[in-house]
Fold each of these.
Amino acid sequence: MQRLLQIIEEFKQYIALCFFVIISFSLMALGDLSQFGGLRSVVVATIGVFQEAFSFIPNPVALKSENSSLRDLNAQLSYEVQKSRQSSIENDKLRSLLTFKSISKLPLVPAEVVGKTIGSIRSYITLNRGTASGIAQGMAVMTDRGLVGVVASVSENFAIVSILKNRDIRVAARLESTRLDGVVYWEDDEFLVMKNIPKTYSIQKGEIVVTSEYSTKFPPNIPIGKVLGTHEDPNSLFATLKIQSFAQFETLEQVFVITQLPNPERIYLEERYANEIAVKTKNKKNVKKQTSKEPTENSNENP
Amino acid sequence: MKIRETTLFDRLPHLRYAVYVGVALLLSIADFLLIPLIEIQGIVPDIIVILVVWIAIQEGQLIGILSGFMCGLLVDFMTYEGVLGVNALVNTLAGFTAGYFYKENRTTLILQSYRFILILFLAVIVHNAVFSFLYIRTTEATISEFFTKYVLVKSVYTVVFGTIPVLFRSLRN
């Protein structure tokens, strides 16, 4: 017994350590503090009293952290608002396109503009649809507002469209109310032009210009733009119309490709006849220069 | 010949235990009320362990173990979250570690010199290492980062506060 007491005395620190470690682990095994019910309530109430008494002391770290969190939240909410606004605008656009597609009798394939190149001579856009969607070179492209251009090149999933602001594009057009025909094209300006309109006709500002039946490239009656004004050369019998296109090329996002190609029989017949005329008139010296220089849709329509 | 006046503690030596209890209560209140105000990057000093090490150097290893357990249990009750017994365990180990350096006739010398700081640092390293081990989460960075932040940095921060009683005692004497 004395020996045992001696051992305990000698190793009392270790025994105490083991004892308290075992108690600590036993307490941990009990789990959370909720098992102590009433005692815990007293502690919480006491702490609450002290915390209330010291609550006037600001905690700069907590304030900084809260400030940072609020900044993050603010940035996130701003982004959400912006996204919501964008979605609303996009929703309106898509709704109008959907309405247009449902009322249009033309075979349309919707496409998204994924690339845009606005140049000084040639401007074109890239669409996310290609041959896989039934798109082919030469098809017309439009929006719900009006004509955009023509498909210049196509791959399986993408298509490049030459837009009207392109020197290679000429469109046989007609003034909707006066029924005057002409060719609409672009001349390095903000607007399109329609030349050789006889001065004897009174053209009203705002008159709508549409594609005509004479066009071998575009289906008829697609809106192109509206007349902004007339320029009359005093030395000429003809006037030039300045036309504002309906399609907003700078903000194009969604378009429709008209999956309808011109009738090849018609093109063949017209080309053959044109060649015959050309042969006949080859030797005639009295061909007027004015008519030979005049841009015609068929001579230069393809990009 | 200089005659030293007898103090209350000389007449009632056990009164110092009451002082320890009072200081432990005050420190545990300060631990959750004031210490969060000096938090740096989620790191706060542990002022209770300073008291435990102090008692262990002053009273010996056995009392150090007992005070570590009692102070730890007090902290366990006062903290909102956490498992009961964790602080009791780590403070017991800190008291045990510090108690190794107890020298009966040299307590004053240790308590007012850099030795206390070194002992405190060692005890706090043990305290924080075991504490971090019990709470480590595998998703929380790497082991080395975790060790650096929650063991080394926290220990250094605690030791900085541990210099206050040393300075106080040195100036008093």
Amino acid sequence: MHTLSSSLRVIWACLKKDLKSTSSEPLFTLVSIILPLNVLLLMGLLVISGGLAPTAVVMQDSGPLAQQFYAAMKEAHSFVLQPATTQQANALIEQGRIVAVVTIPADFDTRMRQHQSVAVEVKINNLNTDFTNDIRRALPLSITSFYAKAEPSMVTITPQEIDAYPQDLGYIPYLAVPILVIGLMVGGMVQAGTAAAVEWERETVKELLLSPASLVAIVLGKMLAAFLIGLAGAVVVLVVLIALMGIWPVHWGELIGFTLLVLVLFTAWGTLLGTWLQRRTPVATLAIGLCVPLFFLSGPFGPISFFAPLEQLVARVFPVYYAIVVLQHAFHGFTLNTSGIGINLLILAAYTLGGLILATMVLRRSTVAH
Amino acid sequence: MVQAFVRAVWTICKKDLRVWLRQPSNVAITVLPALALLFVDALSAGAVGRSPVALVTLDQGPRGQQMAQVIHQADLFRVSDATPAQAQVLYNNLDVVAILTIPANFTQSVEAHAPIHIEVQINNLNTDFTNDIRRAVPDAITQFYQQRGGESPIKVTLQEQNLRSQDIQLFQYSAMPLLLLLLVVSGLVSSSLAAASEWETHTIKELLLSPASSGAIITGKVLTGFVTTFALGVLVLGVGDLLGWVQPVGVYWLEVLLILALVALFSAGLGVTLGALLERIQPVSSAAIVIALYLFFLTGGTAVLAFDPGWLQTVATFVPLYYGRHALEMAIFYQSSDQLGRDSTVLAGSALLAVGLGILAMRRGMADAR
């Protein structure tokens, strides 16, 4: 029977041993610490466009109505506009620098005043339906907004928007939270997984298994060491998000508490992965390689209930989803599911406990196999 | 002389292939990220661009019903018809992004040319979903007016001119860069591990003491990476063709195979360089997958590069995958060889440069080992 004090001693010894091992490989430790930041940069490339279509506008008419149409396009939440001549616009779209060219004809104002139809030419680089449809839908928005201001008596049907939140949150601040979660996942799993697997690669696991120490205490000690190193990586990412990118959390207490819980969770699962695979290479490569698919699978773009039922089902399998839910609440005060923050936290805690129990079980099985 | 060289290359290639096949976890980690992303794409393909909304039609008159029909048929939303109370429940449960309400006096107001609003209650927690709704509602209004033909007050019409012969479905569009990701991950990971393992397991000594020339050793290493990567690429392309994801036609099969071969050679060369430079499996495996992901995302990932900022588009032109992606898009989607000369020259040059760097790195490593 392991007493509490002996278990604490084992935890402390394993923690010290792993921290000392880590300090003997300063380059790898440094790489581990900046790994979440690396994920932030990598995933940042995904969202940097902000979903706005770079579009050239050829203003063949410079009359007031044509100018109003241009202004309506600018306010359509869909374009990054740049005025251009026909030649410049064609060159830009051929080079793939822009995705659309809108040409406002020379007789725009005249025909509008005479209530005659006006054809606005739209040349689209129709690469794929998703992006192309965004442009196709943004132009009617520009047209209705234009009429609402220029000829309010003509187009009488207009949308009246009632927003749930006082202001929209940008694409990047919103997606920064799921990216943070993925960074915590990669940082925690790589550090914990490699620390566990290295015991097999160096065959030091024999000493651990033959010692009278409790297996749970060994796992906890190793997890704690990986957690402390992962914490350094988490702090680096949070500093970048908050201080450099200006994404200020609404609930500081929640941010600190939830970040710690999420990091413990992924440390537990990293330990499990390392104990199971027993080799550092597949652990590190899997943790890094699967970060992008897991990001997309876990509902990073909005409440998962807005997506197809199968997507919802798959997302709910992964703890990344629940981590995103609680951290979106901490950062932006958003509610992304109806379960309540408490239930989401309980699920995360259950995943953490599950990871710890499974890692201990795998370690126990390897005792028999050894 | 030549015979001995070929025999040495073949022997090393056979040995590395056997080692590769004996490590299924390494094979799995090379294919998992791309396959997982393909799964994500397939999962989300159905609902892209169509947000779930609740539609409350309070007007039973002809115009109100017509507007409701337009909203249903416009392929802009996933619509749930609801009473005001039901809609509020759906909205509160996060089952819909927005509630669209057609007011009771809609028909009366439209026929009297009086201003009338379609109420849009939006859960505006991020701009992505919110802007989709903001674009879609005016699109529906425009379609409603268009049904009135010549009587439509909207005189501004859009004359769409597509740059390409057809729109590509998002899933197909994303599948193709994922094929490139698969090639790059596979080439980089397998070649770098094969090279680094010679140092880590000290088998480099045996290789150097053998009568095989260093040129044969290096060629054998690159060839293994190329063969495994290319074979994997052809296999996935074949499966993609059978499933209808990516379907080259006629002579364009050759073009696609050429590009796959060049990308495979580039990745294998880069992998050997990395493995020979770092000489240790652990940092090599992490670095290989991170480099592969950066190369992938710097060329737009699964999105459209033209939406990204200008500086990123400029950076992309220095990444060889940019040219591979362009050539594959042209051949697979548009049955075109547009700029094939440029694309294949850049890819071939990059592949040769990568192999050249690999040779230099291996030679340097071998000299150190001597």
